[in-house]
Amino acid sequence: MAVELGTKERIDFLKKFDPEIAELLECEAEKQKRTIGLIASENVASPLSTCLEGSIFTNKNTEGYPGKRYVGGTENEDKVELLAIERLKKLFGCDHANVQSGNATIANSAVFMGLLKPGDTVLSMALNDGGHLSHGAKFHFSGKFYNIVQYGVSQENEQIDMDEVRNLARKYHPKMIVCGGSAYPRLIDYVEFRKIADEIGAYLWVDAAHIIGLIAGKVIPSPVPYADVVTFSTQKTLRGPRGCGVILCKEEWKDKIDRGVFPGMQGGPKADMIAARAVLFKECMTPQYMEYQKQVLKNSQALAEGCMEEGLKLVTNGTDNHLSLVKVTDLVASGREAELLLESVGIVTNKNVIPFDMLNSNLTSGIRIGSPLMTTRGAKEEEMKRIGHLIGITLKSKGDPGKLEWVKKEVGEIVEKYPMFSDEWNLGGE
Ligand SMILES: *Cc1c(COP(=O)(O)O)cnc(C)c1O
């Protein structure tokens, strides 16, 4: 099971050999069980998939690609990798997939490496408006070696301003346009992005790291028919283990993308990681998985409603996906203070910059909240709305220890009800 610590014998041995790590492992299991996890980029990994992470596949060097390895004896790993790729093609209807990147930031770097030359112009969404650091932030590889132009959201409705995107594209003629981010609660207009990219002959790359689970579950539109390249991580809404970046692309870009990953960005991939993802992708095609993703969306909307009923303001006034951004500076000094206050009652969130933020990224004016993890634990709409209320009550109760103590007790009652991975989603049995 995902949250069990291992077989009893192994844990007993670990306790004897390395009591420090054994204790931290137990503390972490306790903490995960006893808190309401709302970090939008976190989930509880599929137990079936987790079984394969760290399995004996890890012993094998598999540098290269199936049929073109630089070492012998890879026949089983070749089959595993080809299965993972076939399943992705079926799941998303894409031409080609690469599953070797060690995380999505590496996969994104490989897209730059494979499709562009240093100095090429790229149009992407600003980090402060919800984009990701690997789309050209100054401190990332992409921002150091490429000419980055950025678009943001409109002051009026806090959503992507397609006129601004079109104007910037016409003015700067980027080789690539990027959309998709880490803190954007609304749907993205892929049709319009495609039109703009076609008008100037640019690649369209969609980074779907956050929303890929909702796409796999078919509860929000897929970018695959429109994009040249789609990248994602497997640990967020997709509900797999952390540490794998996937790239889907059109047939034409297959070789460039594969060479971008290996040898462009890394050496031999982890065969155990790929086996774990192959199982995950099979899980993504089950009816239970579709139900889970429907519930993630319903729960996200219920959580947002709960917050708004308490008078909290959300960026864009709501959400179309698994996450919301809550503006907190009417009630507390910063997102950082909100994060700490909520953590003190057992609700785990993260501070997050919001569009047109007046505070820096260490303080911020918002928090980001999401539904994937509590949905995996089995929470439904009513409970999520209640959690939204508790967030509001907490932020209003700064300096009222009695009230905060009361919220903490409520949180305790909620987490008591749920296992880490609800039986209704569990395909792995006991
Ligand atoms: C989380 C995220 C990534 C990075 O994923 P890692 O697997 O942690 O490297 C990339 N892009 C976006 C939009 C993300 O939200």
Could you provide a short overview of the structure?
Its cofactor is pyridoxal 5'-phosphate. Helix content is 43%, strand content 13%. With 430 residues, the protein is an alpha/beta fold.
Note the topology.
Layout: H1 8-17, H2 19-34, E1 36-37, H3 47-52, E2 64-65, E3 68-69, H4 75-92, E4 96-101, H5 104-115, E5 121-125, H6 141-145, E6 147-151, H7 162-172, E7 176-179, H8 190-200, E8 203-207, H9 212-216, E9 229-233, E10 245-249, H10 254-261, H11 271-283, H12 287-309, E11 313-314, E12 323-327, H13 335-344, E13 347-348, E14 350-352, E15 366-370, H14 372-377, H15 381-396, H16 401-417
Parallel strand pairs: 1-13, 5-6, 5-7, 7-8, 8-9
Antiparallel strand pairs: 2-3, 4-10, 9-10, 11-12, 12-15, 14-15
Bound molecules: pyridoxal-5'-phosphate.
